[in-house]
Design goal:
Blueprint: H1 3-16, H2 19-40, H3 51-68
Helix pairs in contact: 2-3
Length: 69
């Protein structure tokens, strides 16, 4: 997937989803990439079923931190 493909995907998502849904999607993508890198570099495999819950937790933590500023 090239840079233009990613930009088109983000434009598509922003046109069809709420901002919070896009935020959750981006966090999920980051978590998947992060876990992939962890496994490749000797880390342990973590159940992918926890990604949705962890993404929601990250987003809530971020919003809470923004309110504190």
């Amino acid at each position: 997937m090239g840079q233009n493909d990613l930009l088109h995907l983000l434009e598509y998502l922003l046109d069809r989803l709420s901002l919070e849904e896009v935020e959750v999607f981006l966090i999920q993508a980051w978590l998947i990439w992060n876990r992939r890198n962890s496994v490749i570099h000797g880390g342990r495999f973590i159940d992918p079923g926890t990604i949705n819950q962890r993404a929601a937790e990250y987003l809530e933590e971020y919003k809470h931190a923004q309110q504190q500023l």
